[in-house]
Amino acid sequence: MATSLITVDETKEMENVKAMGDQQQQQQQQQSPTSATNPPLVRIGSKEAAIVTRSIKINDSIGEVKVHIQGELDDKKAVFLTVHDIGTNSSAIKEFVDIDCMVEIRLRSVFIHVDVPGQEDNANDLENFPTIQQLGEEILLKILDELGVQLCVGIGDGAGANILARFGLAHPERILGLVLVNLVSAGVGFLESIKEKLFARRRSSQQLCSEEIVAMHKFGNSHDDAMKQLIETYSNNISKINGKNLRKYMTAYMNRKEISDLSNLDVLLVVGGRSPFVHGVEHVYSKCNKQKTSILKIDNIVDVISQCPEKLAQSLLLFVKGLGFLTSLQLPGIQNDMGMATMKANLAAIGRRRTLSMEEYDIPRMRRLSLTK
């Protein structure tokens, strides 16, 4: 039976912090007549850092890749490396990180959001686009080396999850754990072969528009009202992405090679119960080491990140606690429920180590001494 990672001392500390926060909030409410209806967010002893954007040159062929560093790189902070799906860019995962219930994680972490080459807003046409294998095995490594980051937790969505899985397999010493949303490990399958035929048929006459590419990739052949509503939410982001570069990303993903065994990595697989990727994710899970892998499947959901971010945030925290990160945190605004009891036990057990002291609670496994050089 898995036990909680939170010690008695940690619980007392959190109660004290909450009491201090409540006292400060009451004082602010007395000073401001509008605070009763719109209470300010109380942050004790810390503040959020500005986002810094850097362009990192990979090589002469690929050129530069933009990364957005959310938080200050610090060897005492948890480091998350994020890679986005087709039809989006780094802003999609950043929107998830920016939700209210993620505030405490943000304050004690740094997020490195990667824009896949040519997918940043208003990018110029790319002459050469890397393969999915190159993105995972070479480009992400170059980024971490350039930033001096030795160890991170990966968060990837769709094609980004595939890229991060390859990075973890090629460089397991640089990955503490992976949160992979909508991961499909196999190469081109039946549904994707249909998509490829459609690409080939239409290349001779007209190009697929960006919205069609994203719709086929994310939603398959389903076009009910929920799917259409999700497409509308993507439209603003899609309009900012270079259509030629988006098609190159899609083509590279279609031509990917199959991913080998993930059983040696600590992994949280995430999928919506109505997602077209659900069977692919379940297939990946069936081949994984159940001692090191958990799956979060949310019923009646297509896109977990946009439709159910709070539950994903809760599962993310439980997962990284099991890896030795952020073990004293609780997420504000999210209540624990009985339906999460089994998930909590499973996620906390992944990568479990001894209970941490207050001095150690944010430091990862001691076999890897630092997050940055």
Please characterize this protein's 3D structure.
It is built from 13 helices and 8 strands. The chain has an 8-stranded mixed β-sheet, with helices on both faces. The longest helix is centred in the N-terminal third of the chain and has 24 residues. The chain has 373 residues and is an alpha/beta fold. The chain starts with 7 loop residues before the first helix and ends in a 24-residue tail after the last helix. The chain is globular.
Please describe the topology of this protein.
Elements (H helix, E strand, L loop, with lengths): L7 H24 L19 E9 L3 E8 L7 E6 L6 H8 L5 H5 L1 E6 L17 H16 L4 E6 L1 H12 L4 E7 L8 H14 L6 H10 L5 H15 L3 H12 L12 E6 L5 H10 L5 E6 L5 H4 L1 H14 L18 H9 L24
Parallel strand pairs: 3-4, 3-5, 5-6, 6-7, 7-8
Antiparallel strand pairs: 1-2, 2-4
Quick take:
The protein has 373 residues and is of the alpha/beta class. Helix content is 41%, strand content 14%. An eight-stranded mixed sheet has the order 1-2-4-3-5-6-7-8, sandwiched between helices.
Tell me the structural class. Answer: alpha/beta
Largest sheet at a glance?
Answer: 8 strands, mixed
- Walk across the major sheet and give the strand order: 1-2-4-3-5-6-7-8
As a whole number of angstroms, the C-alpha radius of gyration is 21 Å
Strand content: 5-15%
The helix count comes to 13
Cα end-to-end separation:
37 Å
Shape descriptor: globular
Order of helices and strands: HEEEHHEHEHEHHHHEHEHHH
Number of strands: 8
| Helix percentage range | 40-55%
Uncertain spans = 1-14, 28-45, 351-373
The average pLDDT value, as a whole number, equals: 76
- Oligomeric organization of the protein chains: single chain
Family: Belongs to the NDRG family.
Region (Disordered): 17-41
